[in-house]
Amino acid sequence: MNPIKGIRVLVVDDEPNILQFLELGLLNEGFEVKTAPDGMAALTMIPQFRPHVAILDVMMPGIDGFEVCRMLKKSENVAIIMLTAKDEVDDRVKGLMLGADDYMVKPFSFEELLARIHARVRNQFPMLAGEASFGPFRIEDRRKEIQLEGRVLELSPTEYELLKFLVVNHGIVMSKALILEKVWGYDFGGDENIVEVYIRSLREKLGDREHRLIRTLRGAGYRVDLP
Q1: Are 65 and 41 in contact (CB under 8 A)?
Q2: In whole angstroms, how far apart are CA 175 and each of 65, 156, 182, 204?
Q3: Rounded to whole angstroms, how far apart are CA atoms 85 and 69?
Q4: Which residues does UniProt assign to DNA binding (predicted)?
Q5: Residues 179 and 145 in one domain
Q6: Across 40-59, average pLDDT
Q7: pTM confidence score
Q8: Which domain holds residue 217?
Q9: Is residue 89 part of a domain?
C-alpha cells in the first residue's frame, strides 16, 4: 500500500500494549501518530493535533469511545474507526448512529486496519491521497496532472496550481487577491492582472469559449461551475 504523507492519526485505547503496537505500526507506515489512554486525554489533544483519522476503543473508563465519537463529529472533519472487544450488533448500530465511519472487532489484523484507514482517507480527504475527481475533472496531484473528461491537459506548473485551486473550491467565488495569495504566494509583488492572463490561457486549453466552466463575476472574482 502506498504511504500517504501528512495524515494525522489519533489512537485512543486504555490498553497500553495496543497503543504501543498501533503507534509503532502506523509510524512505520508514514503516518503522524498521537496516542491517548482515555477519552478525556484524547479530547484535550484534539484541538492542536486535528487528526484526520481517530481510532477509538469503545470500552474505556470515564468518557467512553461512543462519547468521544459524538463530540468529535460535532466539531471536527475526522474519519472515525471504532474498536470493540464485543461483536455485538447493538454496539455497531450505536457507533454508526453517532457518526462512526467504520467498525472493527478485537482482535483484528493490522493489515486490515491499515486498509480501512486508507479507504477512509481516500473517501474523506481525497487530495491527501494524491488524487480526486470533481465532475469532469480528475486531479492526480503526485503526477501534477489534471484530466478533463479523460483528456490530459497540457498545463504549465502555475496553470496546474491555479486550475487545481479553482476546481477543488468549485462553486465558491475566488477573488484575484485570494488567488494570488494561494497560487503565487503572499509575497508576490506583481500585478494582479496576471490572474486574468492565466484564466484566459486556461479557458483556451479547456475549450471553455463561453466561460461555462470558469465564470467571471465582475468585481468579485472567478468561480468554477461543474456540469
Answers
A1: no
A2: 42, 21, 11, 21
A3: 17
A4: 129-226
A5: yes
A6: 91
A7: 0.61
A8: 131-224
A9: yes
